[in-house]
């Protein structure tokens, strides 16, 4: 069975009160994440400071002994507020995350500056654990609960 990543933070920060204000204040904020069998999918909201911008997600499965970084893709059908843009990302993890803790932070580069969202210094952390298959009981006769009716 595929691994299950359990967020150790609210998985939809974008749904919390004051999210738009936090984006304005910090320039970049994680909007949501969703664990999938092959990895982690999510979205980031950034303040639209310039036309050219780059958003990426840096992550590790071994407490930063090594890390990888993936670019996030601009989502043209983004927020209609005119002040922010949305970027989507996918971290390809597969079975590697089954027993590990995934940590990540979001980087936003724009107009010669760099901004980070690292969950207020704690990084975004998800605990990996293997899904437990359903318990196998004794085989049951499919007809054991059937009624037999003779006319």
TrEMBL record:
UniProt xrefs under InterPro entries: CBM21_dom, CBM21_dom_sf, PP1_regulatory_subunit_3
A molecular function GO annotation: glycogen binding
Pfam families listed in its UniProt record: CBM_21
PROSITE patterns the record matches: CBM21
One example of a Gene Ontology biological process annotation: regulation of glycogen biosynthetic process
The CBM21 domain, residue ranges: 20-127
GO cellular component: protein phosphatase type 1 complex
Protein name, UniProt field: PPR3E phosphatase
Source organism of the structure: Cochlearius cochlearius (Boat-billed heron)
Source lineage: Eukaryota, Metazoa, Chordata, Craniata, Vertebrata
Gene (name only): Ppp1r3e
